[in-house]
Design a protein that fits this description.
mainly beta
Length: about 140
């Protein structure tokens, strides 16, 4: 996939068509709390050396969303933006890829994809998005 990631270390890159991407978080070995993006120390129990890297499951449920209709520089409207609840108990704030944002429904199943989130100086900026699970 051609483009520049908006921030390194947030997700894995699918290396071939059909390969699944994953968000990269961490989990505290002491209290088991999970974080995304990764935390430098556990905010729950304040342990610095207890965090281990994990891949978060790539499917979740749409918690809430809004449809953005007024463009910011580099973004094409309309687009959806919202929160996805993952099975690990993490709520992800992200752009939502949907051809028809008006068909989004709270609680619907969503899946992670890596794609263009905006454009800067004519170059695609890539990031993590969620889209409705097909069918």
């Amino acid at each position: 996939m051609e483009g520049i990631p908006f921030k390194e270390g947030l997700f894995t890159w699918p290396l071939s068509p059909g390969e699944q991407a994953f968000l990269l978080g961490n989990q505290c070995k002491a209290c088991r709390k999970i974080y995304f993006p990764k935390a430098a120390l556990c905010p729950e129990c304040l342990k610095e050396d207890a965090l281990e890297d994990i891949k978060l499951r790539p499917r979740g449920k749409l918690y809430t969303y809004t449809v953005v209709r007024v463009p910011s520089p580099g973004f094409k409207v309309p687009y959806a933006f919202g929160y996805i609840d993952l099975p690990e108990g993490v709520r992800i704030c992200c752009q939502i890829s949907a051809a028809e944002p008006e068909k989004l429904k709270l609680g619907m199943d969503m899946e992670l994809i890596i794609g263009q989130v905006r454009e800067e100086a004519g170059k695609p900026i890539l990031g993590y998005l969620f889209r409705p699970v097909k069918g």
